[in-house]
Amino acid sequence: MSAATAGPGRVGWALTDSWTMTRRELAYWARQPVQVVVGLVFPVMLLLMFNYLVGGGSGIDGDNTDFLVPGMLALTMAFGLEGTMLAVTQDLNKGVIDRFRSMPMVPGAVLAGRSAADMLQSVAALAVMTGVGYALGWRWHKGTAAALTALGLLLLLRFAMLWIGIHLAMVAGRPEMVQAVQILVWPVGFLSNVFASPESMPGWLGAVVEWNPMSATATAVRGLFGNPGGASGSWAAEHAGLLAVAWPVALLVLFLPLAVRRFARIDR
Fold it and tell me: What are phi and psi of 108, to 5 degrees?
């Protein structure tokens, strides 16, 4: 009788195996605290740099910090893709995933544990960023329910991005290939309304920016927080909340099955 069907049943084994893989990732944090701290501090450095040195928020009416902080929260969720890729490629090259696949565990537990650990790290990143933003003078101006909804949209974006990262990691296969993805992630991140309103950009560029999934999340989050959003009155800006859900769901529908299928075919 296999582990997937014995005992409390398949669901129970899946949850147990997934939690085991999650605890393995959490234990890695304890062994590599510097890497975890750097991952949390880097977005804070960007926030401080753009708030005080670069002077973001071009083309907006209202406080620059209130505009910038929600955008940086969205950018932090997107940049988490690189950390996911690096962790998965390292496991692939060390043969860790091969060893896990040879054990009597539910096949999807490795990916479930990876995604759960990444989401926990994302919650920590949001907590650090919101705390720093609050210290800089940023405030949300609507109720608790709206603020929690905004955080939910941010985590939904992160959940979609981590599955993109898992898939790309298994396609790339090597940690050094993560650098190639970083070169692509940065332009996509900055081609958004995180730092400036599309109204301050040339018409064609502003239109591209407004349809960036990160822009949809940033605009929706600003609205839920009651922060200035630099809305242009376009369809994408007026329906940012819809797009903030539709884009991540569409990315999940595409990349989650691709990642699972790719994982199942490793060394087969």
Answer: -80, 0
pLDDT digits (tens, 9 = 90+) for 121-172: 999 999 999 999 999 999 998 989 999 999 999 999 999 999 999 998 888 7
pLDDT at 56 over 60: no
Compute the distance between CA of residue 174 and CA of residue 83 in angstroms, rounded to an integer: 13
Nearest-10 Cα torsion for 184, 187, 188, 190: 150
3-state class (DSSP) for residue 196: strand
Q: Give me the torsion for CA of 137, 138, 139, 141, rounded to 10°.
A: 120
- Write out the two tokens for 227: 């922060």
User: Other CB atoms closer than 10 Å to residue 114's CB: what's the count?
Assistant: 27
Residue 76 predicted with pLDDT over 60: yes
pLDDT of residue 212: 92
CA gap 170, 84 in Å, rounded: 11
Residue 268 vs residues 8, 109, 156, 264: alpha-carbon distances, Å = 30, 19, 32, 8
Say which DSSP state 58 is in: B
Please count the CA atoms within 13 angstroms of the CA of 200 that sit on its side-chain side.
15
**Under 8 Å between Cβ of 225 and 142:** yes
For the ranges 17-21, 118-122, 151-155, the maximum mean pLDDT occurs at: 151-155
If DSSP states are collapsed to H, E and C, what string results for 121-169?
HHHHHHHHHHHHHHHHCCCCCCCHHHHHHHHHHHHHHHHHHHHHHHHHH
CA distance 265 to 67: 44
| Distance between CA atoms of residues 221 and 116, nearest Å | 23
